[in-house]
Amino acid sequence: DADVTQTPRNRITKTGKRIMLECSQTKGHDRMYWYRQDPGLGLRLIYYSFDVKDINKGEISDGYSVSRQAQAKFSLSLESAIPNQTALYFCATSDAGEVQPQHFGDGTRLSIL
Amino acid sequence: KQEVTQIPAALSVPEGENLVLNCSFTDSAIYNLQWFRQDPGKGLTSLLLIQSSQREQTSGRLNASLDKSSGRSTLYIAASQPGDSATYLCAAKGNNTGTASKLTFGTGTRLQVTL
Q1: How does DSSP assign B75-113, residue by residue?
Q2: Average of pLDDT values for B31-54?
Q3: Which of A33, A56, A101, A105 could serve as A6's disulfide partner, Cβ 3.0–4.6 Å?
Q4: B48 touches B37 (CB < 8 A)
Q5: How many helices (DSSP H) and strands (DSSP E) are in chain A?
């Protein structure tokens, strides 16, 4: 979805480095999400936010932190990257309300050596 | 804890064939079920979303059904085309205290439509 933009698209870095992945959206949605995708495991939720002052842990939040700087921006940080955080990371957005669909960015492929 | 399973993991069919992709979930307390398409190197494109009160949704050659009581959803693709080749993911949104607002994904079915 071109309205959900992730940067960078690809990143290779070394163990122990701090990394930030950024997500911005022009859909005007209140809710934003970060997922990671690993082969054979499907997508798993890392963190989610329902508005600028709201941050919630997902299924696999250990080793990650997030910041919701504005309604349109939601960044994911790896404070000290480790190789098993190598994965494809997706940002998603949705309108408020449980019946709303989620819309995904094109992903960031992160490799940690 | 919600678990979502998709069978088969991979499927190859000749062009023009009708096909069904299966998705099963263990917890029937869901708000909705969403089907996505993922192309290599790309994000997820939402195809269909079925609310818990609905039985099916249609979009063009795609038809998705939902049977909450049996914990199953199917995605029917009519008259398949090579451009349908992609990985198809289903995801259930829970409405229990522990699963509210969260999408639980299956691992996907990789579809190849051959000429």
Answers
A1: EEE-S--GGG-EEEEEEEEE-STTTBT-EEE---EEEEE
A2: 91
A3: A105
A4: no
A5: 0, 11
